[in-house]
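User: Here's a chain of 200 residues. Predict its fold as tokens.
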Amino acid sequence: MAKPTAGPEIERLIALLARLPGLGHRSARKAALTLLKRRTDLLEPLAAALAEAASRIVACENCGNLDSLSPCTICRDAERDASLIIVVEEIGDLWALERAGVVKGRYHVLGGHLSPLDGIGPGELNIGRLIERAVPPVEEILLALNATVEGQATAHYITDQLRGRDLKITRLAQGVPIGGELDYLDEGTLAAAIKSRRML
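Assistant: Prediction complete.
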């Protein structure tokens, strides 16, 4: 077992950074060194921002988005289409759709997807609140879930839970991406594109 090369405070910083997605131990060590070298212009402002985020950021009681107030800014926006709820797995998905700027409905963050092998059932997700919200003026539920086996299973479960209500339940189209070349696409993407074909 390798001996620590730095004091316990630095090793703790590296260990915490290594727990972030996309950072292994080596990347965390480099990030820690950069932070420590740039203490005044990077480390101290980052520490202050993290402390403020920890004390002020909350989950929205309506949709599950993160904001400094609840209901969140999106839920409070009177210019949003109240008849449309866009269901996403994670907050990052919500942010991606907002960056695209193509839809102006309200959101609902599930907090993941169904995965029985990982012990994630309907009770671990924010599905119950979605069912409560699926009443007038809501007319459409757009399931903007990932095109994975788990995403498909989650979409089917939600569809079953909403069956019998006067709602339009839609999914994102799947298939060939803009700029995609057929030779580079996997069989699943090609199959989805063929099934979703439309008249010109």
